[in-house]
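Self-study notes.
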Amino acid sequence: MRIAALFPGQGSQAVGMGQAFYRSSDAAREVLDRAEVALPGLLELMFDGPADTLTLTTHQQPALVASGAAAYAAWREAGGPEPVVAAGHSLGEFTAHVAAGSLSIEEAVRLVRARGSYMQDAVAPGVGAMAAILKLDAELVERLCSEARSAAAGNDGADATVEIANLNAPGQVVVSGDAGPVAAVAEAAKEHGGRAVPLKVSAPFHCSLMQPAARQLAGDLAAVRFGDPAFPIVCNVTAEPLASPEQAPELLERQVTEAVRWTESVTAIAAIGVDRFVEFGSGKVLTTLVGRIVPGADARPAFDPDSLTAALEVAGQRGEA
């Protein structure tokens, strides 16, 4: 059985995340306890909320890393096979490094806590926006972004940023940037038969407005030594496996300002003959996206002991989560 491990990003958080694994798995409990030592108060927020505090980017990023790493630890403890490849959506790439042993859980949660803070502070509230553009292909959305930038620049030249932030699946592209141009792309998308869904985010992620955050994060990444991963990690900004651990800091820095190439990443993983995608952590957003990118693919979430056990049984394992 050739397994691909996937780790979710922002938007997958939920109050209670990781708590069932904490109670049922010694390996998961160890991961979560180590995350708590690194960031005191993290587990109480994950388990008990409140939801509005957990949703803040500075909190949800380390919470998602901790829950994903804990779910993966429970999988391995229960006899689940080691993946042949892994990928994480946005901040989930840090979780993939933890699972692969190239980054410690302590380093990872501290890095993404700082990452969330830098991203939150990079753009003043209300200046930026993000929107999901549905039912249109990426080439058309890129053209609409270019037209919106030109129109904004032709007015006063200010606040003219709008870029593709996430290539999530065919017919699902997220744009990010200044609020005006993002709204213009959303309106233009409707005129071309698409749909536009404004996203409830605290900042315009994965676009050039995040350059101050990327510069700050670069210093933190430079202070961390990445080890050799136990299995390949497909990187967001290249949609290719990490060539060497020395490249990890640069690619994770670029990820802050560049698009998440998720469609290409999943397509590349499927091309190597993976039998099953397993999403570790909170929610099942990536499981749904895999089904849209690779129709008929076997994709399963492992967000609690029951779903993890179901994935194990299909994989021919009989461990206890």
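Second protein, same conventions, sequence then structure:
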Amino acid sequence: MADSSLAASDVGFRVSPTSINSTIAVGDRNSEVVILQNSSSEEIVVRSHVHFAGAQDSVEIVPEPAEVSLQPGGSAQVVIHIGVSDEAQPGQQAATVSFDAASSSTRDVSIVGEVGVAIGVEIIRPVSDVTWSFPRFVDSSERVIFQAKGRNTGNFTTRLEGSADISGMFEGNNSLTAASGPISIGESADLQAVWDETPLFAIKRVTLDLSSGIGAPVEQKAFIIVFPWKLTLMLFLILAVSAAGGLLQPFLAKVFSSNGRRGD
């Protein structure tokens, strides 16, 4: 019967590949596969641990499964899930996933082999330099034009798509979209979406997005107030003129009456 006690030199344990470089957009995820290989004559248990190079709060790395048993001569896949938060800043992030191999024997729990996989993550923001233009106060008789401008800062030619989701508490929602043609790396695009049918009175919340279809879009939220201000202004002027005319009538009547008496 084979001795269950293993020295490090007795274990043939390999991981492939030993380095991974991944480009991920903010708000996006990626998965990489590594192969664990047990070329020894003993069963081993492999456990994974993640170590980041420096402080980080925007990248998540999760090996799955975190623990795996390998029979003599056996192999297994471990999927490394890499996620980047919506708030991440573009740049580089480095980490290491360590795989510790130990004998599966309950009498020997010492680590008998360790291999590290270097993880390099390049974080990109595919759309930047985004600006929006639209009115905050809208006359009920007018349409609303949402204009967006953005630049392709990804690493391949893409299309930019803008959307304006208009929601209200008491009325139906509207969703407007506009898309560009192919945009080369570093080039900008101007998009325009039109809301033709504005209500008579409304306070609407607008969510504006501009995206290349990869990762989290650049987003802005705003409120739009819709009311017939032109008609209201006209009515106000009419009332003001009418009120002024009512005040002038007694005065004019008195003047004309005096003039009339003087003429007798």
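Instructor comment on the second fold: The two ends are 144 Å apart (CA to CA).
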